Amino acid sequence: MQANGSIYGYVFDYANKRISGWQLPNDFGNQGRIYWGGQQIAYRAWNRSTYFDHQDWIGTERLRTDHAGVVSSTYKSLPWGDGYTANENDPTGNALDNLQFAQLDRDSETETHHAQFRQYSSGLGRWLSPDPYDGSHDASNPQSFNRYAYVKNPPLMGIDPSGLEEFDCFPSSRRTNRRLSRVFGIYQEEAAAVVVMPRQRSLPSMTWSETS
């Protein structure tokens, strides 16, 4: 990959997660990513410091802290990843990693986001190429026929790290009552537990008659 006049190489694991990167042609290692449960939680930077990622429920980066818990950088964006602003100051440290919207890597030169199979534009709120997987059509959901739509259009409810299939962030077996309030471009979450009652089945009407 070429960025800012330099060429970088990357190593990916079996789950297509980027685990390390280096600058060519000298093979100078500049980053190592750390994952837990399939989600990035920290990275080792060029300046030999480790930064911890703090993300919202869809995996969008909101702030980073150092090993002492001190906030080193903060990030703001709107639901589609648009309106992105970053408060960071060290390109070899807190600004080195490009993980940004919904667990996708941001390309600062094109302002698009890399998924495994497609490119996503936060400015447009859609993919830049149609869904290559024909099996994603669903006759019960008309949104599935829009081949450019991102997670069928509710960006705060799901993610699509591969560009082929979206995943629901709130499966029905773990329902919560969530209220999203927009504060300075960041959607904060106020969660309250909800008791999900079993669905009531209607009983068939019965007619009783008495005989003497």
Overall helicity: under 10%
Please give the largest β-sheet.
Answer: 9 strands, antiparallel
Fraction of residues in β-strands: 35-45%
Global geometry: globular
- Return the string of H and E elements: EEEEEEEEEEEEEEEEE
Determine the structural class based on helices, strands and strand pairing.
Answer: mainly beta
Mean pLDDT across all amino acids: 78
Q: Please report the number of helical segments.
A: 0
**Strand numbers in spatial order across the main sheet:** 1-2-3-4-5-6-7-8-9
Total domains: 1
Number of strands: 17
Distance between the termini: 91 Å
Global Rg:
22 Å
Q: Give unreliable regions as ranges.
A: 173-212
Outline of the structure:
With 212 residues, the protein is mostly beta strands. The chain has strands spanning 2-3, 6-12, 18-24, 28-36, 39-44, 50-55, 61-65, 71-76, 85-87, 105-107, 112-114, 119-121, 126-127, 158-159, 167-168, 177-183, 186-192.
